[in-house]
Design a protein that fits this description.
The chain is mainly beta. Helices cover 6% and strands 53% of the residues. The protein is built from two helices and 18 strands. The chain has an 18-stranded antiparallel β-barrel. β4 (114-126) and β5 form a beta hairpin. The longest helix is centred in the first third of the chain and has 20 residues, at 5-24.
Length: 419
């Protein structure tokens, strides 16, 4: 059901532009169209290690098919186009006592055999500005839809990106519903409250999220961004980000990533948070060494959309976000690209994050830590060229009432260009 006039307008604009495209088709619209089919095989296993866990493990295996079509634009002062995203997930292994991985829906009798959806996006281009209406995958400091499982999460709304001024990218958007990564249904949005100390929520869901912001390239080595966002009835948020890359010599650089977010209530919630994060990464040939720090202050933890949204935090990692009330956390990270020693396609990453200084039931001071390791390889030649294999391993431990987990993900993906 479309609850607001804006929501109805979004749906009607998408339908109208989609139906109009074939009658306006011109050479550029067809010639610039791109299409691909990604085959994504995903195995997920999470073991709960704490005493008295309500579920001993989550363990599922599935095959995903992701069809992406991006049209060109019709000729003229205003160019029109349409994009399509077709998603299909097929169950390979699951059972009712092992669901909840996020790669398959959870039904009354376990995961269904398959699930699918089709998303359409109408778009219009004027000069260096593009308006999109319909199905969106967003990624900016205000909101980022997750693509860390079998199929990506998507949102329904409108987005305008403008690059009219050299070095400046303006970005504004409106969203009224989210379709989670293991679902075929669009739903209203909520706020992530797990461990955040956020209370006073009278309306469980919201049907309006708006944001506006931009990124400016101050110099070739320094960029700055600011975003304002509002989840109606839940929170308002200001986000600042500075990224500087200092070239030291050939193959050697120092990157500094500074982030600050100020969140306050909107409605009857008690949201009140200041989040500061810093990540410094030194790169030398194929090696990268990173150190990160993140600090929460205020009356609550960090506020962000619930469901399948990735918060813009330096210590948001495979399992944890380290964003509880008053939490301080540190990260040490190491990456290596084996191309530097003659093995292109092979990459390695490991990191360790530890957090403390927050309240947790049953203990005087909450503590938690996580260790992640990623190993990936993309075949460079032969019959398997461009086939990507990645293994992701994580261990998460905490004191008090937190969950203890050992997690493994194995992802095999291959993209076939169609156009």
């Amino acid at each position: 059901m479309l609850k607001t006039p804006i929501a109805r307008g979004v749906a009607l604009a998408t339908l109208g532009a989609t139906l109009a495209i074939p009658t306006m088709a011109q050479a550029a619209f067809i010639e610039d169209t791109k299409a691909s089919l990604e085959l994504r095989n995903f195995y997920y296993n999470r073991d709960y290690r704490q005493d008295g866990a309500s579920q001993s493990k989550q363990d599922e295996w599935a095959q995903g098919f992701l069809l992406r079509i991006e049209s060109g634009y019709t000729e003229g002062p205003v160019g029109f186009g349409v994009d399509a995203l077709g998603l299909l997930g097929v169950k390979l292994d699951s059972s009712p006592d092992r669901t909840g991985t996020g790669i398959l829906p959870v039904g009354d009798s376990g995961a269904p055999d398959d699930y699918s959806e089709l998303g359409l996006t109408a778009k219009a281009k004027v000069s260096k500005s593009v308006l999109k209406v319909g199905t969106l995958q967003l990624k900016n400091p205000a909101i980022a839809t997750s693509d860390s499982r079998l199929l990506p999460s998507v949102m329904r709304g409108a987005q305008l990106i403008s690059n009219e001024i050299d070095g400046l990218t303006l970005d504004l958007g409106y969203v009224d519903q989210i379709n989670n990564r293991n679902s075929t249904n669009y739903e209203d949005m909520g706020v992530n409250t797990a461990g955040k100390g956020i209370t006073g929520i009278t309306n469980v869901e919201s049907d309006e999220f708006v944001y506006l912001g931009g990124t400016y390239k101050v110099t070739k080595d320094l960029s700055a961004s600011y975003y304002y966002s509002n989840l109606e009835d839940f929170y308002k948020q200001h986000s600042l980000n500075l990224v500087h890359v200092l070239p030291i010599s050939e193959g050697q650089s120092l990157k500094t990533d500074l982030r600050y977010q100020r969140s306050t209530d909107d409605g009857n919630t008690n949201v009140d948070n200041k989040a500061f994060g810093a990540m410094v990464t030194y790169s030398l040939s194929g090696h990268s060494f990173g150190l990160g720090y993140q600090k929460m202050s205020g009356d609550t933890g960090f506020a962000y959309l619930g469901g399948n949204i990735d918060p813009y935090l330096v210590n948001f990692v495979q399992i944890g976000d380290f964003a509880q009330e008053d939490e301080k956390s540190w990260q040490a990270r190491y990456d290596f690209n084996f191309a530097s020693i003659g093995i292109p396609g092979l990459t390695f990453m490991t990191r360790y994050i530890t957090g403390d200084n927050f309240e947790r039931a049953g203990v005087s001071e909450g503590k938690e830590w996580e260790r992640d390791t990623d190993i990936g390889y993309t075949f460079q030649e032969g019959a398997l060229k461009n086939l990507n294999v990645k293994w992701r391993n994580a261990t998460f431990r905490s004191n008090g009432a937190g969950n203890d987990m050992d997690e493994n993900r194995l992802i095999v993906s291959y993209t076939i260009p169609l156009m």
